[in-house]
């Protein structure tokens, strides 16, 4: 019977194959005895399985480096579809030809047996999909609700979109994080959000929020900023994963960066890396540290702005009397007193979304810049959550312009 390994086992085999291909020739000596140009010349490769040759939405496979010496032949695991038979497998059997496809796992149906059925993964993300499907069936689906997208492992994709408004980044648990862009029908291309997700992981590891100059820099959409600077030395990186794009290129001093010295530099003026908020923070910190180094233990009057990981001002700022929403340059959009109950929940997401959107159909905001719980668009009113997504727990999900008829969940 065909043997199906868990994906982690396949990943381990893949890693071994790659390491063997990389280090095998080195271990063999400078003459590259194991792998030469002639090694694969007389090797007869087996034909790839049918699904691997087709590679469409319903018939496809996972192309991997071959486990044979020098990786002469292509190797592919056919992806099984939901409901097809599979097996947990035996690690001692190397004959792996099939695996449950994206979003599926081999579910054991009989205790004590290694056989199973390729079944849909049961994760928080897939449960969101099930909730959507259930609401569509029972008539409680809002017209602006969107079915959750999950990745091949059943986890949340890095973005979420509000139709006609904005798209924003989410972490692996589906919670909103830094990164927002105007609505797009191709968010998978426009919002990779890896920089934003990497930052969240760094915060968990370190145990606190990171300040300007301590961490990599992201773009407003959550991708990596193409120029990164560490200890005043700058270089170009891939905007997806932050890996240096010219690893052999010499680093450039931060004061010398320009279109001539760095291929990825886009600013019209040379020598500009830090945004206004970053510069303000670093200037205050420099003065603070200078006094501390001189032996002062109590220092008053220092204020540090709250900066986002793209170097601009965070949407919520505050002083001793007020909390206020600002744009990315720090200009005040609206403010409330610290003593006002609205200050406690202030997030300014709606105020910022209005600036991000190109559409004239802007969302309605409360006095603190948050989304108003009742939103109206094109003659229909609906309830939304704090991120602006439609929520509906019982019909009707929308009413006409008379918002008083609408009951929103608390």
From TrEMBL:
Cellular localization per UniProt: Secreted
Domain of life according to the entry: Eukaryota
Q: What is its main location?
A: secreted
The family database entries (Pfam families) matched by this protein are listed as:
Thyroglobulin_1 (PF00086)
* Keyword field contains Signal: yes
**Which Gene3D superfamilies did the record assign?**
Thyroglobulin type-1
What's this protein's name?
A: Thyroglobulin-like isoform X1
